[in-house]
User: What shape does this take?
Amino acid sequence: MKSMEEMIQAAQKAAETIQTQMNDVQAKLDAIEVTGEAGGGLVKVKCSAKGRVLGVNIDDSLMKLEEKQMVEDLVTAAFNDARGKADRVSEEEMKNIQNGMGLPPGFNLPGMG
Assistant: This one.
């Protein structure tokens, strides 16, 4: 039977491996692009598989052409602002959960950090 120290080291190594894998998956998801559509394709939103909005396209028939780019940029900025706020709230909630579990500060539980 392994000593307690060897088991703790093995668990720490496994946790580090899982964390590295989770970070790799997150990076991969951020590199994958998908496009959502609404109104039969009149409005399109391109984002990463991680949920980061990359751009918005609004068909000319829905607006004044001279304002099109500005509206697209504003919609993109609003989506990203909301996403950033949601991420911060989510991170804070995860910290609260980790604190409630009695985990030490800075401990990064896979899937929660």
